[in-house]
Amino acid sequence: MGIVTPTNKEVLGFKGLHLYHSGVSNCAMRVRMTLEEKKLAWTSHHLDITKKEHITAEYFGINPNGVVPTLVHDGVVIIESDDIIDYIDQTFPESALRPESSEDLDEMYWWMKSAGAIHVKAVKTYIYYHKMQGKMKQSDQQRQAYEKLQTNKELVEFHNASSKGFSVADAKEAEQTLDHFFEKANTRLTHQDWLVGEQFTLADITWVPLHFTLSGVGYNFAQFPAVQAWANKLHARESFAKAILQWCPIF
């Protein structure tokens, strides 16, 4: 369930819910939204990832991937946003954000895992190409410092690729992957209000930050009207305003 043993022992003494996050991170958005849906009190540890505040030995000692978000609950460290929101929902079951049937539960987890599976190759690549291209160059010293800390091969490769710049082909491949999943979501949402079953679940919380951030870089949601209508409903929720717009008014 994403639980890790930190080498930075400072966090082992934390009491309550502590979240390491960034305003612009879609992964952090879904964790904040889950906390707000549950109306849970939490302590913010904000890291400005645009200033690389997360690339430190201290933070890698908490999250071995050096990414946000990281949740610390009474000294227990959980990484990966899908695992974090699942942990929150199971640990604080009031106002459940999961369906009751096993079939719908499997479907919810499929949507959650799918978002994680395409995060680097599709979501981040598309966003970086359209928003960050040419702004991510780094010196050899910066690259070496990052690679000394980072042991996740996929993240090292992405870090190097984003520094060099993504190609038109990279961006097109990412867009095609996104199109595939949003077309599937559009088909589903044409016939029902939410991604899974008849209730708002962690699946919706997982995907609405992707809509928000991708919209901000010009992804064409006009081709998926049911997805756009679904997103509009989610934008009206108090949790969306507090978890997303208050931290990132415009992406």
TrEMBL record:
<feature type="domain" description="GST N-terminal">
    <location>
        <begin position="15"/>
        <end position="96"/>
    </location>
</feature>
<dbReference type="InterPro" id="IPR036282">
    <property type="entry name" value="Glutathione-S-Trfase_C_sf"/>
</dbReference>
<dbReference type="Pfam" id="PF00043">
    <property type="entry name" value="GST_C"/>
</dbReference>
<keyword id="KW-0808">Transferase</keyword>
<dbReference type="InterPro" id="IPR040079">
    <property type="entry name" value="Glutathione_S-Trfase"/>
</dbReference>
<dbReference type="InterPro" id="IPR010987">
    <property type="entry name" value="Glutathione-S-Trfase_C-like"/>
</dbReference>
<protein>
    <submittedName>
        <fullName>Glutathione S-transferase, N-terminal domain protein</fullName>
    </submittedName>
</protein>
<dbReference type="InterPro" id="IPR036249">
    <property type="entry name" value="Thioredoxin-like_sf"/>
</dbReference>
<dbReference type="GO" id="GO:0016740">
    <property type="term" value="F:transferase activity"/>
</dbReference>
<feature type="domain" description="GST C-terminal">
    <location>
        <begin position="135"/>
        <end position="251"/>
    </location>
</feature>
<dbReference type="Pfam" id="PF13417">
    <property type="entry name" value="GST_N_3"/>
</dbReference>
<dbReference type="InterPro" id="IPR004046">
    <property type="entry name" value="GST_C"/>
</dbReference>
<dbReference type="InterPro" id="IPR004045">
    <property type="entry name" value="Glutathione_S-Trfase_N"/>
</dbReference>
